[in-house]
Write a structure and sequence with these properties.
single chain, 162 residues, alpha+beta, Arc Repressor Mutant, four-stranded antiparallel sheet, 6 helices, 4 strands, 44% helix
């Protein structure tokens, strides 16, 4: 982590009262923590908007649907199998007698993931859903490597045996 920079922000009192209330409700102990998270999220979203459709991203798609809807489960399965390289894992939850929820972990090209999400979200019987995208996996790993400053020395198998 770099050096901390202090700065002042001017805002209407009512806005600050509402922001402080929201920050407290979300568990932040101070404004700085809340502002840092808002800044990070805005930067991630701005970067995602600029990525080409072929850029590698991570995502999760949450769907709530009527499991009695005619052929819906079969069609959802077909769509996921057609794009199986994007699907990392699927969590299926029985919400009630009529409703199910699926959370699908995704990894791949941004455009392909959006197409998969739209294909599933538009199916008759899907009541609600939301796609969440985040930074590319390579960039998340690269950031960790930059932050990790000391070097590891690889030991050859022959040297370890001594």
């Amino acid at each position: 982590m770099g050096d901390l920079v202090r700065f002042g922000v001017s805002a209407e009192e009512e806005l600050m009262v509402d922001f402080d209330r929201l920050s407290a409700d979300k568990g932040y102990s101070n404004r700085s923590e809340a502002l840092r998270d808002l800044m990070r999220d805005a930067l991630v979203q701005a970067r995602l908007e600029k990525f080409p459709d072929t850029a590698d991203v991570l995502g999760s798609l949450t769907l709530v649907y009527d499991h009695h809807a005619r052929e819906l489960s079969e069609r959802m399965g077909e769509i996921q199998h057609e794009r199986h390289r994007l699907v990392v894992s699927v969590l299926h939850v029985h919400i009630s007698h009529d409703d199910c929820m699926e959370v699908i972990a995704l990894r791949g090209g941004a455009g392909a993931i959006r197409e998969l999400a739209n294909a599933l979200l538009s199916l008759k019987g899907v009541k609600h859903g939301k796609l969440f995208l985040t930074l590319p996996a390579r960039e998340i790993v690269a950031r960790k490597k930059v932050a990790h400053s000391h070097h590891h020395h690889k030991t050859s198998p022959a040297r370890r045996a001594k």
